[in-house]
Specification:
By secondary structure, the chain is mainly α. The protein is built from eight helices and two strands. It has a two-stranded antiparallel sheet with strand order 1-2. Strand 1 and strand 2 form a beta hairpin. Helix 3 runs antiparallel to helix 7. The longest helix has 16 residues. The chain is globular and about 45 Å long.
Length: 151
């Protein structure tokens, strides 16, 4: 069981767990989340939903949402049992949202500084900023450039 599964549906429980972890754990959580989302689609290509072509940002938002719904939906999309376009319909609220076994995340956070970071993907950024006075995306971007000097 992952930490996200153990804390679901209480975002404040995930917030608390992240708040008790060292910097490296928060960075690893963010990288794993991002990697799972990246495995669903090439954001830069966008995607077509009912004839509308979604932007890179909208495609990324969808993929992050899919990951946030848990391993059940994510693995179903990876396996091709659920098409990403079907997941988009769930995301938009046009079809039954989630399997019965998945309870949607609440949006309650304990620290008022984390308002605006009220999803399982963004809460790690809020906690990181609060704890380390640094932007996680900047820290991870710097790590990637060190790891890949050819960029």
């Amino acid at each position: 069981m992952t930490i996200a599964q153990a804390t679901r549906p209480h975002l404040s429980a995930l917030e608390s767990w992240l708040g008790s972890q060292p910097r490296e754990v928060l960075e690893a959580f963010a990288l794993a989340y991002e990697s799972a989302a990246d495995s669903l689609a090439d954001f830069s290509e966008g995607m077509s939903v009912e004839g509308d072509v979604w932007s890179e940002d909208s495609t990324e938002d969808l993929c992050m949402w899919v990951v946030g719904q848990g391993s059940g939906l994510w693995s179903s999309v990876i396996a091709g049992e659920v098409q990403l376009e079907e997941a988009a319909q769930m995301y938009l609220g046009r079809t039954r949202l989630l399997p019965d076994s998945v309870v949607p995340w609440d949006e309650e956070v304990s620290d008022p500084e984390h308002r605006g970071y009220q999803s399982p993907w963004t809460i790690v950024h809020g906690v990181y900023r609060t704890r380390f006075a640094e932007e996680l995306h900047e820290r991870l971007g710097a790590s990637e450039e060190v790891a890949r000097p050819d960029r």
